[in-house]
Structures are given as structure tokens and as C-alpha cells.
Specification:
Blueprint: E1 2-5, E2 14-31, E3 37-55, E4 65-69, H1 88-100, E5 106-111, H2 122-137, H3 144-154, E6 167-171, E7 175-178, E8 186-191, H4 198-205, H5 220-230, H6 234-240, H7 245-252, H8 254-266, E9 272-273, E10 280-284, H9 287-299, E11 302-303, H10 310-322, E12 325-332, E13 335-345
Parallel strand pairs: 4-5
Antiparallel strand pairs: 1-2, 2-3, 3-5, 3-6, 6-7, 8-10, 8-13, 9-10, 11-12, 12-13
Helix pairs in contact: 1-2, 1-3, 2-3, 5-6, 7-8
The structure holds cytidine-5'-monophosphate.
């Protein structure tokens, strides 16, 4: 994530760009005594950004703390009463203020482009952005390491967004080891409008109790993938990519399996789920290859306006903002699976 001073608004306004992530490898090593699952995962940030901006209260206004969605009306929670739980941006800002012993102030405005409940880390990235933004705007100036440990209190994969690029994440996901030397990677991503809750996905796994492995053992698989990517053995790397959630979630929602099978038929390099889904992605040789795969995927799908729910509207905005996304629907007239297809690449 990165910050920029937003001089069009006011000299003290700031904007944070919060990237999405893809899990190129995700292995659940077992369920721990504290109820969390021990993970070994390789995550990469990709070029699809939510933006979070902060501006100070106007002179005539009392010092206040506000949160807005832009444009208003998407399904993202803005308070504790929402179905999806309390908004992580507000939680993050309040946590930093408490920690620093200050009163939170100013207006945060979140523009969502990353689809929610997709396994693409949108909510976590927004929370990391809120910590970084408030840290700068309020003059708290904690180092990134301290922000990352605050982030771990809010959610397991939030610290990843302070790693500054690809990282192997272990423990419950909060222990990050940055990975350097990866080439720029190109992907096609497809997101059906099926929401998967991370909490429910973990509960469905019924993972065995976690047995601690000898030091370093757990990192071997993700590390082997890193070596293949570093040496640009991309085709071979696809054989080392896997996700423990994929089979369980696809068994639960068979239409997701159909979409994954289609992706795999179109790109011989395969396709896989990111996080606990419901988005899938396919690693490609180049931007051209990704465009080709995306085009073929779309040719199997019927074009259809993408406006059936708040979540879809939220994705629809990303379509126009990014310019690389297409609105698509898959399936027969009475039995449609809708999916949004776009190309993206790593950013670091
Ligand atoms: O840490 P976070 O709040 O994102 O996790 C949401 C839920 O996902 C947890 O309450 C837990 O049920 C589950 N989880 C897990 N193991 C992890 C991460 C999350 O079981 N490593």
C-alpha cells in the first residue's frame, strides 16, 4: 500500500492506495488450540486498488471523526449494525487513536473496487491503509513494524499489507517474511457473485489438530514455489501452486467447480482459488497471454449488465475505474452463474 498527499482537496489531505492480494499457495497445517488454523501461504499484492482518503474537519466544523463510502450505497458495513460486522477501517482508526492516546478526527472516505468476500483481502487491505493513513494524518508516526503488530490484533492477514510486496505468511497468517526477487507476474481473475465468509470457510474445513513441525519444515512448499518463480520457471511453478480451501469450497458450491474447470480448460497452465474464495485466478506467461485467456473466458460467457445487488454494483465500479474489467455472465438462461473477468499483475 502507498500514501500520497492529496493537494486537490487540502494541503493536509492524504490518500492511501490499498491493493488486493492473491494467494499463490495456501496450506492449512492444522487447527490450533486457540481455535485459529496454522497456515503456510505465499501472498502477492496485485494492481486492483481500493482508495482510502482522509481530510481534516473544515474550520467551521467541530473536530469530528466520520466515515463515508464513495459513492454511497454499497454493501460494505459502515457501523456495527451491519450484517458483515463492523467496518475494519473504523476499527483500525479507533485502535490507533487509543494506542496513541489521541482523539480520532477528520473524514475517511473509502472507494471500493476490490470485490468483497472474494479471498482478495479487500477488507484487510483497507484496514492496513486506515492504520497507515491515520498514522500519517494524525502525526502519530509509528514505524511500519509497530503498525503491523497493531494490524495483527484486527485480523490475521492485515500485517501482510505492511510487508511491502510478496510475502510468505505463517502462524495464523500474521507472521510475514517478505519475499524478494520475484518477476512481475500476470494473471486473469474471475469473480462470481458468490460470497464466501472466511470464518465459515475455516469452520467447514474440519482440519485435524495442528502438530508443530520441526523448524523450517512448514516453509518448504511455499519456499519451493518462490524458487521456481524467481528462476522464471512459471509453467513448473503452476504445479507447486495449491490452496487447501479449494476442494472444500467447490464441494460446497458445485457451480464454483464448473467455473474453475472452465478456467483450467482455457488456460493449460491451470487456475486456482485465492484465499477462501470465491475468486479464482490463472497465472499467465505475459500480459498478452493474460488478455488472450481473459478474451477466451469471456467468449464462453454471455454478456450481461452487472447490477443485481449492492455487491455487484460495487464490482461494477471497479469495472469502470480500472478499464480492464468486463461484465460477464456464465450459464444458461434459467441457470446463470455471473462472473466478472479481468487481467491484473503483481505490484511491488
Ligand atoms: O483473523 P481474522 O479475524 O481475519 O479471522 C476471521 C476468522 O477466521 C477467525 O475468527 C477464525 O474463525 C478464522 N481463522 C482461522 N485461522 C486463521 C485465520 C482465521 O481459523 N489462521
Amino acid at each position: 500500500m502507498f500514501l500520497s498527499r492529496d493537494c486537490t482537496e487540502s494541503p493536509q489531505s492524504w490518500t492511501a492506495f490499498a491493493p488486493a492480494k492473491l494467494n499463490l499457495f495456501l496450506e492449512i497445517l492444522g487447527k490450533r488450540d486457540d481455535g485459529f488454523h496454522e497456515l503456510d501461504t505465499l501472498m502477492v499484492p496485485v494492481r486492483l486498488f481500493d482508495t482510502l482518503s482522509w481530510s481534516p474537519a473544515a474550520e467551521h466544523e467541530a473536530e469530528s471523526f466520520r466515515f463515508h463510502m464513495a459513492p454511497a450505497g454499497s454493501d460494505i458495513p459502515t457501523d456495527d449494525s451491519n450484517l458483515l460486522g463492523s467496518n475494519l477501517v473504523i476499527q483500525a482508526a479507533e485502535l490507533l487513536a487509543r494506542e496513541a492516546g489521541i482523539t480520532p478526527c477528520g473524514t475517511f472516505t473509502l472507494t471500493k473496487r476490490i470485490p468483497i468476500q472474494a479471498g482478495m483481502g479487500g477488507g484487510s487491505s483497507d484496514a492496513a491503509a486506515a492504520l497507515a493513513l491515520a498514522n500519517r494524518a494524525w502525526g502519530v508516526n509509528y514505524p511500519h513494524q509497530r503498525l503491523a503488530s497493531l494490524a495483527a490484533r484486527l485480523g490475521s492477514d492485515i500485517p501482510f499489507f505492511f510487508a511491502g510486496g510478496p510475502a510468505i505468511c505463517q502462524g495464523r497468517g500474521q507472521r510475514t517474511s517478505p519475499v524478494t526477487g520475484l518477476p512481475k507476474l500476470h494473471f486473469v481473475v474471475v469473480k462470481p457473485p458468490v460470497a464466501v465468509s472466511t470464518r465459515e470457510a475455516f469452520a467447514t474445513l474440519q482440519a485435524p489438530a495442528y502438530q508443530e513441525l520441526p523448524t523450517g519444515k512448514a516453509t518448504l512448499h511455499a519456499q519451493r514455489l518462490v524458487e521456481l518463480l524467481r528462476t522464471k520457471n512459471l509453467c513448473l511453478a503452476t504445479y507447486a501452486m495449491r490452496n487447501s480451501f479449494e476442494r472444500v469450497i467447490c464441494n460446497l458450491k458445485p457451480r464454483l467447480q464448473e467455473l474453475l474447470d472452465l478456467l483450467r480448460r482455457i488456460n493449460p497452465w491451470g487456475g486456482m482459488m485465492t484465499g477462501s474464495g470465491s475468486a479464482f485466478f490463472s497465472l499467465c506467461r505475459s500480459a498478452n497471454h493474460a488478455n488472450h485467456v481473459a478474451g477466451r473466458l469471456r467468449s464462453y460467457l454471455d454478456w450481461k449488465p452487472w447490477n443485481e445487488s449492492g455487491m455487484n454494483r460495487c464490482i461494477d465500479r471497479s469495472v469502470h475505474a480500472q478499464g480492464t474489467v468486463s461484465e460477464t455472465a456464465l450459464g444458461g438462461a434459467h441457470d446463470r452463474i455471473h462472473g466478472t473477468v479481468w487481467t491484473t499483475s503483481t505490484c511491488h
